[in-house]
Amino acid sequence: MTIKEIYENKNELIALKKAAIKHSDVCVNIPLKELSTNKEVIINGFDGLQKVVANTYYWLDSHGDVHVKGCFTKSIKENIGKIFHLDSHDSSAGFRSKVANVKEVLELEVPWSAFGKQKDGNTICLIGVSELIEDYNKQVYDAYKNGEVDQHSVGMIYKDITLAINDPEYDEEYRNWLNVYPLLGNPEKADEEGYFWVIKQAALKEYSCLLWDGSNILTPSAKENIEPSNDTHESKEADNSHNVTLEQKTKISIYNFN
Questions:
Q1: What CA–CA distance (Å, rounded) separates 199 from 183?
Q2: Can you tell me the mean pLDDT for 45-60?
Q3: By three-state DSSP, how is residue 119 classified?
Q4: Helices (H), 44-203
Q5: SS3 call for 237
Q6: Residue closest to 22 by CA, chosen among 153, 127, 184, 191
Q7: pTM for the full model?
Q8: Residue 46: which pLDDT band, with cuts at 50, 70 and 90?
Q9: Within 10 Å of residue 250's Cβ, how many Cβ atoms?
Q10: Which of 253, 206, 189 is nearest to 227 (CA)?
Q11: What is the pLDDT of residues 73-121, one digit of tens each?
Q12: b/e map of 64-94 (b: 16 or more CB within 10 Å)?
């Protein structure tokens, strides 16, 4: 579709997005011992609490979407007991589909440099903290234990979406572009496309471990410890207990098992 056609059919396209569950691009796994504020459970020398990056914001993904700060905050606060950790987005077996119990889900500002990007400023990582249960799915449990899982993705439902277009002819959409474009980690893709969808709010249903690589190139080879950024952007969405917990207590090590 041309930019004009996308603009003219904006409401219909948004309705179609809201009607489906989105499985996001894949993000890197981060098994972090320091992340959780809960008491850790050690099972045969293996930390039963697994911490993963389920999504990375301000990255234009293959769905044409850019998740922005606070997009999952409301959902996390309201539904923490109803967010699940699955295998490959498969919920067909009901409660038997779970591979772990989700203990925490948090949004954390992290410098782009943590992902090998030569860009000032921060992205935001959606962090899931899961207590892996061997009896739920032994194969997945063993894969985590052996450090074989390095890919994750979220399952979500769109709630509040707006369109950004790189053309001053479209007043509101161009303002959206000007507001979000400077924060992108891959602005070259936005330049190529000329538009993107801004995901302002979404309902987080689950995050999954995956076998195959995805199209998200934010799988870093960084091995150093990374402190959460102190260069936070003030907003009502950012002022919540999840971010405070992370910023006060978290030190991150990112691993690439590829």
A1: 14
A2: 81
A3: coil
A4: 73-79, 138-145, 171-180, 187-193
A5: coil
A6: 153
A7: 0.76
A8: low
A9: 20
A10: 253
A11: 999 999 988 999 999 999 999 989 999 999 999 998 988 887 778 889 9
A12: bbbbbbbbbbbbbeeeeeebbbbbebebeee
